[in-house]
Hints:
Blueprint: E1 28-31, H1 38-41, E2 43-46, E3 52-54, H2 70-92, E4 101-110, E5 117-126, H3 132-145, H4 147-154
Antiparallel strand pairs: 1-2, 2-3, 4-5
Amino acid sequence: MTDLRPPHTSLLDKHIGMDFLPLYTATVRVSGGVARHARASGVARSDDGALQVQLRMPEPLGGPGGGTNPEQLFAAGYAACFHGALSLLATRANIAIPDAEVAASVTFGRDPVDGLFTLTAEIRIRLPGLERSTAEELVRHTERICPYAKMTRAGIDCVVLLDD
């Protein structure tokens, strides 16, 4: 069995430098499957083989369900990242949050700006047993350092390339 333990709080140490410092890159490839459309029948596979999921249109969008979808994957990543950042900050502050729970809801919908599509997200945090003012401060600081929260608030550097 793998020794599962949280990362060291040194991850919270600030980087000093002018350039982005990459720490880890995840690559997931998606193909279209039978319908030749990733949302309808795709497969998402990570390069390391740890992730392999069948993608299916959810029933509310006219699909059969029975698989995951991009919104669920994004919500899972967002919730996991926020929970991790929350836990690191709590550890550094010597605050016990053993029953902390983060729920991310990602909604796919129509964009009033261009009439096409957009996403909205909502993060709900439960910190049972923690004084409200302490919980609010911890969440506020987490929102400032969580990469997903930063991305949803300020955008993300993104390069789109066409391979040969």
